[in-house]
Amino acid sequence: MSITIGLAGKPNAGKSTFFKSVTMADVEIANYPFTTIHANHGVAYIQVPCACMERETRCGKCVDGTRYVPVDIIDVAGLVPDAHLGKGLGNAFLDDLRQADAIIHVVDASASTDPEGNPITSGSGDPAADIAFLDYELEMWMFGILNRNWSKLSRKIKAENLKTEEAVADQLSGAGVSLEDVVYALHETNLLSKEAQKWTEEDMLLLCKKLREESKPMIIAANKFDSLLPSV
Question: What's the pTM?
């Protein structure tokens, strides 16, 4: 079973440049928003020591003791404010990203693009806000799915004595959230001790924050540092 990594971030942050460098795929790259409209798919390879090196016999599937493990990479369309409401290419972005087991958030560290990805003077943007912004959009996306028909679902949980974790996992399955993710998040938020019908909006937002952290682990890739270097 292969791992799928999503490349996410606002438009013009350098996601496609990152994608091209790790997959060697030929994709369009330009200094303007939404160069990528449809998700790009490619494969990168991680080099790991082969287990056969610990044995006397070689497996024949590695190169000098190094095994190349394939990783599926998805370069999704850029994210703009209120993408969870469908703004920009938000619906396409979130639909593509649901497939990801983890996310690399490509951030414009040179602060040379505004929230919509338009070029601005280097240093006048806010990379820290860009990082928080992606977290917020993912959490609000999950909240929107969970909150949809929640009143009816929470009554059904009580009336039919359903397991809360299974009902929540079923509601969020389309967002790439597993039952294990839900069990962890419910434990962390202590919401299993509270009747589902009595969950507040704040309870559900906190749950979605934990679900985002667990189901979509993320690392930050600071990009465009070279634009800050003095020219020689």
Answer: 0.80
